[in-house]
């Protein structure tokens, strides 16, 4: 399985995908889960696809870590997956839906809001996303 995000010029952002992949793997029990970035960073979808095949898979699941089904889901990721698959005849693949409208996302967004409000009020530490940025605060200007 490949979990793919957009990719960023900010290394901290790219490393967060690695952390998510680790959490996903630990929680779900999937034995092969690789991170990939669509662009701007490594590993690429091709690199992750190759790693999955090297580890013995014959079916690759490409899961976009995107909120909504935009151009990257409709065109870019399927094209990059198809290119990667050309190197592996007999290996099938699927590009799954992005996160989309899912009621559990309401809980995730609400949890983040509550955490940030608690931190801004001085009642909690910064979350891992905001740590050290100074962004989780109330602005008056």
From TrEMBL:
| GO molecular function terms attached to this record | lyase activity; metal ion binding
Q: Which UniProt keywords apply?
A: Lyase, Metal-binding
Q: Does the keyword Metal-binding apply?
A: yes
Top-level lineage group: Eukaryota
**CDD domains registered for this protein in UniProt:** CbiX_SirB_N (cd03416)
List the Pfam families. CbiX
- Name assigned to this protein: Sirohydrochlorin cobaltochelatase
Species source reads: Acorus gramineus (Dwarf sweet flag)
Source taxonomy: Eukaryota, Viridiplantae, Streptophyta, Embryophyta, Tracheophyta
């Amino acid at each position: 399985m490949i979990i793919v995000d957009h990719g960023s010029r900010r290394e901290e952002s790219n490393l967060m995908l690695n952390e998510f992949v680790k959490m996903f793997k630990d929680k779900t029990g999937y034995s092969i889960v690789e991170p990939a970035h669509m662009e701007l960073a490594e590993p690429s979808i091709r690199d992750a696809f190759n790693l999955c095949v090297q580890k013995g898979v014959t079916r690759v699941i490409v899961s976009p870590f995107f909120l909504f089904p935009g151009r990257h889901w409709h065109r870019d990721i399927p094209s990059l997956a198809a290119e990667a698959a050309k190197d592996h005849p007999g290996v099938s693949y699927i590009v799954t839906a992005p996160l989309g409208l899912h009621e559990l996302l309401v809980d995730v967004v609400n949890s983040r809001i509550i955490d940030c409000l608690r931190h801004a009020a001085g009642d909690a530490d910064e979350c891992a996303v905001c740590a050290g940025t100074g962004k989780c605060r109330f602005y008056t200007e």
